[in-house]
What we know:
The complex is a heterodimer. By secondary structure, chain A is α/β, with parallel strands linked by helices. Chain A has helices spanning about 45-50, 85, 95-100, 110-120, 135-150, 165-185, 195-200, 230-235, 235-250; strands spanning about 1-15, 15-30, 35, 60-65, 65-70, 75-80, 155-160, 185-190, 205-210, 215-220.
Amino acid sequence: MLEVRSFAKRYESRGTVTEAVRDVSFSVEQGELLCVVGPSGCGKSTLLRSVAGLDRPTSGEILVNGTPVTEPPENMGVVFQDYSRSLLPWMTVSRNVRLPLDYKVADAGERQAATLRALEAVGLAGFADHYPWQLSGGMQQRVAIARALAVNPTLLLMDEPFASVDAQTRAELEDLLLQVWQEFGMTIVLVTHDIDESVYLGDRVLVLSRPPSTVATVVPVRLPRPRNQLDTKHDSLFADLRTEVLSAIGAHGQSAPAAH
Amino acid sequence: MTRRTLLAIEIVCPALAVLAIAIFTSRADSYYFPPLSGVVQSFADIWLSERLVSDLLPSMQRMAIAYAICVVAGVGAGMVLARTPRLMTACEPILEFLRALPGPALIPFGILLFGIGDTMKIFIIVLGAIWPILMNTVDGVRGVDPALLHMARVYRLPRRVVFSKIILRSASPRILAGMRTALSLTIILMVVSEMVGSTNGVGFSVLQAQRTFAVSEMWSGILLLGLIGFLANLAFLAFEKRALFWMRQR
Lengths: 260, 250
């Protein structure tokens, strides 16, 4: 579904070349949920932005369904870290969610139905006429998720989507994500700096090394689904996988970042 | 202090000031400061009758047309300049010079070019009042959060939609601030251009009254100009509050 081949990213400013990403290759299966972790500055967000078509790799290739990415692909949803900056405060929740559909789906009834379905999926059907600033941070991020769902994406990209909310809300949103993933069945690539989160959510965890980054390791997560915050996190396998990811970052990163 | 107390002060203070002026002018017996009652009387006589059509209306018309041109051209040019950095770099020194040039300084040139008709006045007003709108639009558009533009690209929103629904809206607080400054400049330049070369208008009337020693009449015109400015600003604030409703709760 998604294929990244020898992705490399270098920045040049005033004659000095900074090599952020040296060589990263991986592929993601249809319907898979891949988490990407790595030490800070390893270029995981750059990688995601390039998959989204917002940035270009210095060298290498990104293919979505066999087509090279040169601009944002169709049927893709993206959820950014900073919900407050990606929602339009002058539009109601439902207008925000419907905005991408207005220029994609011709039939008004169909647009309305897709908007409603997306809002229901994130539990915000009752807040359609509210403005984003009338909602809590966690709810605003739900709106951003609903907007991504409304376009009925085959690929959903998430850049540290839960990094700006408190721990309680974060757990709720993680479970919400698993739920909508099941309902909509899209492929998800999620970048996070939270190792617990990556293991809890992912089918596999892709660990990047410190820059200039390469793939340190790929950890398959054999935890059973459906997962839940209590049982899954108490599974001894969860602890093992967590340690595996952490040590992969530790071995290839300068210093192991904390789990939270 | 409660809202009610503040409101009471806000009403009582100006009322006291008006009262003080009324008492002072009624006792002063001064040629320069005719009694307030006389000024109000001549206001009613002049501005609520024939001059409403012959002078007030033309003034308001010039203002409205010139202001509309300022807003449309200022926002339009500002958007284009902000989105084409090279053009902006090329134009910036010229713009800075034109902005620094006092509007009334161009009146002689305006008269030379257009005579003393409406076109000259509109020309002068636009050339003097457009800059805050243009410059603020440039700033506002440059300041649009890149996150919003990324979002727009990801969801493949058409260009015109990005402009109208995201960039323009995002820049609107700055644009409106510029529009407010331009509004008071518009009134100032309207008066000045009418005083220098005109055959009608409120500014013309005030100068004419002074030249014919009709002091009450002169004051009534000044009062009218004050009211126009005050009410225009009030209306603008109401409009701004509505347009920027989404900023109040942030």
